[in-house]
Amino acid sequence: MPGEINNDTIIHLKNVSKHFRSGDNIIKALDDITCCFKKGKMTAVLGKSGCGKSTLLNLIGSLDVPTSGEIYVEDILLNKLNEKQIVAYRRNTIGFVFQFFNLIPSLTALENVLLPLELIKTKMDEGKKSAIELLDRFGISGKLLKQRPNKLSGGEQQRIAIARALINNPDIILADEPTGNIDSNTGKEIIDILRKLADEGKKVIIVTHDTSISEICDEILNLKDGRIVNGKN
Question: Model's pTM, two decimal places?
Answer without folding.
Answer: 0.90
